[in-house]
Structures are given as C-alpha cells and as structure tokens.
Design goal:
about 280 residues; alpha/beta; six-stranded mixed β-sheet; three-stranded mixed β-sheet; about 20% strand
Length: about 280
C-alpha cells in the first residue's frame, strides 16, 4: 500500500510540472481587420474622418501600447509578439506581403534598434494595406465567424502568454461562404436581419431572449483570450441598431467563455487611444 501511495504522489507531481503557466507580463497581441466595403470612403463616407483612416490610427495606438509594454520590461524577460490578420486573405499579394512586415516579435536577443523599426513599419504599412484594398475595390467581406471557429486558437492564443485580440469592424458580420442558421441563431448579422427579427424597438433585449436570437457559437472555451472590438458603426434609421449589434457580440463572447472583452463604437482615434493603451497594459 505504501508503494502505491508513493507512485500516486509521483504521478501527481508529474502532471503539475507538465502544466504550462501563462506569464501575464508576456503578451501576444493580434489585430483582425475587416476589409469589407465598410472602409470604402465612397460607399461609407464620413466628413469628420474616413473610417479607414480611423482604423489606421487605432492600429498605431495598439502598436504604441505594445511598445510601451516592451519598454516597461527588462530585456531578459522579452518574449512578446504582435501580428495582423485578415480572413479571408485578400487576393492582392501585396496586401499579404504587408502583413508579414507587421508580424513582430521580441526576445532577450532583440537589439534596441528594433523598436524604431517596428514604429516605422506601423507608421507606414497600415496605410498601404488600406489604400491597396480601396484601390482594388474587390470587397469580399470579412469572415469573422469562421476565423473564431477555425483559426483563433492557432493564430491568436499562446498558452504561456496573455493573449489580446483587437477586431477592427463595423459590427456587422457577413461572408457568403459562411452563411447559415441553426434554429434562430445565425453565423452572420446584417441590417436586414435586424429588421427581419423586429429588433427595432426598446424591447429588443426581450425579443432576443425570447426568440434566442444571436450568433451561432463558434468555439467552446476561449477564456484565455481578451477581445477588444473597435469601430462599431450602425446603419442609420434604427435608433437601437448599435445596441442590438453590441448585444449580439456580448452574448457571443459570453457563450465562448471570453471573460474580458470591450466593444467600442467608431469614435475618433483621440478618444479611443486611452482605452486601447489601457487594454494592452491590462489596466
């Protein structure tokens, strides 16, 4: 009996040593960009600041937060990364090349000059991405649902790091390759669907609950992922449109066990920058 007890104890110790413990001081920042026609200044003009320009400034603020984080650490502890994704990938190979430039990582051997290199890339490259997409004019939509279903765990989650995903989108979700329904839940959200579901009054929450409207769950347990959605931009005509969009996203995140999330409207970058910096800093 004593022999068995020792064996059992050894087994417990073995399990404990195999467990990967996340270091909250090492961060893995991902940016998922919705390159649908929401960024087209002709289709969706805004006199204060075009939406694509807001995106560019949001990305700069994310990069600023990331580098602030790096500067707060000792070099010996560097083990952090940041990258940009699209889903699906744009047909323009130039845009895909730009994303490689925006994939950056720091380790204890990273030279000081790398900071300036990252600043330069993030100051110039995002603008090239948006200009190329607008010039191409082939807005295929953004398959955010499929990204969460098949890619988010592989692309955006590292077991040993604090994982932060920024999503730049207007809040609507649609892609022709991933359009389906399960009972009253959908893989997409459009202004047309919001109207069809009669979510146009102050009682929209009750309507959502009673009919079990929402996004189809795309993943089971994303508790080690923090998500910040930037750029919610409702269509005009329904005063509750923005609140409905946010309700869909919030319920979706909760169902996927995402504990930490924020959903922000397409505000001016100067207003959102403090929020972005705090999100990266974990404050």
């Amino acid at each position: 009996m004593l022999f068995l007890a020792v064996k059992k104890e050894e087994k417990i110790k073995e399990i404990k040593t195999d467990t990967v413990v996340a270091d909250p001081n090492n961060i893995n920042v991902s940016i998922l960009i919705d390159l649908s026609d929401r960024i087209d200044p002709t289709t969706n003009p805004n006199p204060a600041m075009p939406y694509f320009q807001r995106d560019i400034e949001y990305i700069k603020a994310i990069e600023k937060g990331f580098l602030n984080h790096m500067k707060s650490k000792k070099i010996i502890t560097y083990d952090d990364q940041m990258q940009v994704f699209f889903n699906p990938e744009p047909s323009d190979p130039k845009i895909n090349g730009f994303t490689k430039e925006l994939k950056v990582s720091f380790d204890k051997n990273t030279p000081k000059e790398y900071f300036a290199s990252v600043e330069k890339k993030y100051a110039e490259t995002p603008s090239h991405i948006y200009q190329s997409a607008i010039k191409d004019g082939n807005f295929v939509g953004s398959d955010i649902w499929e990204f969460f279903k098949n890619k988010v765990k592989d692309y955006c989650i590292k077991d040993d790091k604090r994982n932060i995903l920024f999503i730049l989108t207007d809040g609507y979700m649609y892609h022709e390759n991933t359009k389906f329904e399960e009972e009253n839940k959908t893989s997409y959200l459009t202004g047309k669907l919001i109207k069809a579901n009669n979510l146009t009054t102050s009682h929209f929450k009750n309507t959502i609950e009673q009919n079990k409207y929402g996004f189809v769950k795309a993943n089971d347990n994303l508790s080690n992922l923090e998500v910040i959605v930037l750029g919610i931009n409702p269509e005009k005509g329904n005063p509750f449109e923005e609140a409905v969009i946010k309700e869909y996203w919030e319920n979706w995140f909760k169902e996927m066990k995402i504990k930490s999330y924020q959903i922000k409207s397409a505000d001016l970058p100067s207003n959102l920058e403090p929020i972005i910096l705090k999100a990266v800093a974990g404050k």
